[in-house]
From TrEMBL:
Signal peptide: none
Domain Phosphotyrosine protein phosphatase I, first and last residues per copy: 35-182
GO molecular function, one term: protein tyrosine phosphatase activity
Record-linked Pfam families: LMWPc
Protein name, UniProt field: protein-tyrosine-phosphatase
Family listed: Belongs to the low molecular weight phosphotyrosine protein phosphatase family.
InterPro entries the record matches: LMW_PTPase (IPR050438), Ptyr_pPase (IPR023485), Ptyr_pPase_sf (IPR036196), Tyr_phospatase_low_mol_wt (IPR017867)
Any coiled-coil regions, as ranges: none
Catalytic residues of the enzyme: C41 (nucleophile), R47, D156 (proton donor)
Gene3D superfamilies: 3.40.50.2300
Annotated PANTHER family: LOW MOLECULAR WEIGHT PHOSPHOTYROSINE PROTEIN PHOSPHATASE, LOW MOLECULAR WEIGHT PROTEIN TYROSINE PHOSPHATASE
EC main group: hydrolase
């Protein structure tokens, strides 16, 4: 059997009739990050940008910004191009995190991430239906070692008040150490 010939560049390569992530096909461009993590919620203005900013800031603090790419997206395009919700920004600022953000709608780059982190079960179902395999798809709360005691959804704070945004921050904060562990495994590092 001849070797598979892969054509095309990012984010998908056509390898002998099947579409695979370019990273999984062994292709890597100079300077490409080794690990891509993306967060997905509905509009990309509340939950997913909060998680993105928190993880990216922590990754930079660990000196891994050149090795780990962190992005986020919404399943809908209602807010594409907008900044994060002002309540998201208020919580991030209160905890010392950056707030620069432009909402994006889910695209092939996000779907090709090494880890696609869904904020809700509805997002996870949609992502699975779009072809994200189970080994690259997780719920945010599944990274929290206490997640068995809670529903895995990170509740949407959009129609709530400041306390709901603070609650989302707390949920994300509890899950991030588990995500750092996953990233370290991918990078072949141990804390």
């Amino acid at each position: 059997m001849p070797p598979r010939r892969c054509t095309g560049w990012p984010p998908w390569l056509n390898c002998g009739g099947s579409w695979v992530s370019s990273r999984r096909a062994g292709a890597q461009r100079p300077g490409e990050q080794l690990v891509h993590v993306t967060f997905v919620c509905s509009g990309n203005i509340c939950r997913s940008p909060m998680a993105e900013k928190m993880l990216a800031h922590q990754i930079a603090g660990r000196g891994l910004a050149e090795q780990v790419r962190v992005t986020s997206a919404g399943t809908g395009g209602w807010h594409a191009g907008d900044g994060a919700d002002h309540r998201t920004n208020a919580v991030l600022l209160a905890h010392g995190y950056p707030t620069t953000h432009r909402a994006a709608q889910l695209d092939d780059d996000h779907l090709a991430a090494d880890m696609v982190v869904a904020m809700g079960r509805n997002h996870a179902r949609m992502l699975a239906d779009m072809g994200v395999p189970p080994e690259r798809l997780r719920m945010m709360r599944s990274f929290d070692p206490r997640s068995g005691a809670f529903t895995l959804d990170v509740e949407d704070p959009y129609y709530g008040g400041p306390e709901d945004f603070e609650a989302v921050f707390t949920v994300i904060e509890a899950a991030l150490p588990g995500l750092h562990d996953w990233i370290d495994e991918q990078l072949g590092r141990h804390r």
